[in-house]
Amino acid sequence: MTLHLTKHHGLGNDFLVALESTNPGLRADPARSRALCDRHTGVGADGVLHGMAGSAGADVEMVLHNSDGSAAEISGNGIRCLAQAWLRASGMTDGAGLVGEVVVIDTPAGRRTLEVRSVTGPDEMVLSVDMGQVRPGPELPAGWAIPGLRVATRSVGNPHLVALSSGAEVDLRQVGADWENLVPGGINVHVMKVTGNDRIELSHWERGAGLTLACGSGATVAAAVAHDWGLVGTDVRVDLPGGSGQVHLGATAVLIGPTVSVAEVSVS
Questions:
Q1: Lower CB density within 10 Å: C or N end of the chain?
Q2: pTM tops 0.85
Q3: Helices (H), the chain
């Protein structure tokens, strides 16, 4: 069966999107996702988003596989890509008319609501996503510590480790895989620097994907950790290798960032 996909990215964090509405009988297949994500023998992406028919008030249900085929609960960049794909497939392509449009998406981490904030071109828009409450994350192994680093774990439905660098350089290419496996099931890893008033910089190692140019859920939890530590206020600019986003911290955390539609792909 031919699979019809669209490709999108949020700050360089790229995803293939398959919608059930354009792929009747769609199944979320981990092995096929892994093959599609391969950047040498497949299409290439950090993950595959399956947009299944929504129910009980949701426009769409998200099923996400990382590039290694493993399942993920939520993705702050990925869910914006899915919302863009759903809007376009639903025929909502008028730039000015899209502003304020709301998309409700169910995920394994719970229901998330997105809003189109602006449309900056025929293939690019800025969306906000209510990421929910930032909660405590899993416990790290007793006695685990790295000199020169302050660490915390948090969750927005998926687990994250945030490490604040105080002069110690951390090469995630060297330690990312080991730190990912500090807890059962793995954890996303982020190294943070405070670079100005209400501004932080992050690098990422994601479960099931490795080094990525951006991580939306990681940006959200890192902003919350920095706020908890008294380093930033409630509106935080987060600079990532692929660009910059914004996090607003209130009763819930709201992530704001761009999403770009890259291509349409059909795979036999």
A1: C
A2: yes
A3: 30-37, 76-89, 95-98, 172-180, 216-228
User: By the 8 A CB rule, do 143 and 163 touch?
Assistant: no
Q: Which of 68, 156, 66 is nearest to 108 (CA)?
A: 156
Grade residue 1 by pLDDT with cuts at 50, 70 and 90.
confident
pLDDT higher than threshold 90 for residue 110 = yes
Tokens of 221: 């939890």
For residue range 164-178, list pLDDT tens digits in order. Answer: 987 678 899 999 999
- The CATH superfamily assigned to 135-251 is Diaminopimelate Epimerase; Chain A, domain 1 (3.10.310.10)
First to last CA, the chain: 6
CATH says 3-130+257-267 is which class? alpha beta
